[in-house]
Design goal:
The chain is mostly helical and about 160 residues long. It is built from five helices and two strands; from the N terminus they run βααβααα. The chain has a two-stranded antiparallel ribbon with strand order 1-2. The mean pLDDT is about 85.
Length: about 160
C-alpha cells in the first residue's frame, strides 16, 4: 500500500494546477508594464498562455463527463515540491532585469513540463490524460522559446 502523502485525488491535483496557472497569469499580467520593451511581448504571450491553460483546467474540472474520475487517487509527481514553489511567485523590484524574468520563467516551464508529463502517466486514459499530455508538450515548447530568448539576451551583451 502506498503512503497517503504519495497520493492525491485527481480533483485536488486539478485544483492545484488551477492555482498554479492562476498565479502565473497574475504574475505575468502584473509584470507586463515592468519589463523592458524587448520582453514585453513575450511576457504578454506568457500571460495569455497561462490564461489558456487555466481555462482548460477549469473546463475539464467542471465537465460532467469526468466527474466520476475526480475522486481517483493518483501518485504525486516527484517534482511536486518544486511545482508548489512556483505557486508562490517571486517578489521583484519595480523594474526587474530581463535575466531574472527569463530565469524564473524557464524554471517554471521546466517544472510544469515535468509535473504534467508525470501526471499524464498516472491518470486514466481519456480527457484528463490528454490534457496533461497536451500541456506537457506546450510547456516544453515554451521552455525552448525561453531558452532561445535567454541565449539571445546573454550573447547580445544584455546581462
Amino acid at each position: 500500500m502506498k503512503n497517503a502523502k504519495e497520493l492525491s485525488s485527481l480533483g485536488d491535483i486539478l485544483d492545484y494546477a488551477i492555482a498554479f496557472e492562476q498565479q502565473a497569469f497574475n504574475f505575468y499580467t502584473a509584470l507586463q508594464t515592468k519589463v523592458s520593451k524587448r520582453l514585453r511581448a513575450l511576457v504578454q504571450e506568457l500571460a495569455e498562455e497561462e490564461q489558456h491553460h487555466l481555462t482548460l483546467f477549469q473546463e475539464l474540472k467542471n465537465n460532467p463527463d469526468i466527474q466520476h474520475h475526480i475522486a481517483t487517487m493518483i501518485r504525486n509527481p516527484p517534482s511536486d515540491h518544486r511545482f508548489s514553489d512556483y505557486i508562490h511567485v517571486p517578489e521583484l523590484d519595480d523594474f526587474p532585469d530581463d535575466q531574472s524574468i527569463l530565469q524564473y520563467a524557464l524554471g517554471r516551464e521546466q517544472v510544469a513540463m515535468e509535473q504534467y508529463t508525470h501526471l499524464a502517466t498516472q491518470t486514466p486514459e481519456g480527457a484528463i490524460r490528454d490534457l496533461f499530455q497536451f500541456l506537457a508538450i506546450e510547456e516544453l515548447a515554451h521552455k525552448k522559446e525561453l531558452e532561445k530568448r535567454y541565449y539571445e539576451l546573454v550573447h547580445s551583451g544584455g546581462v
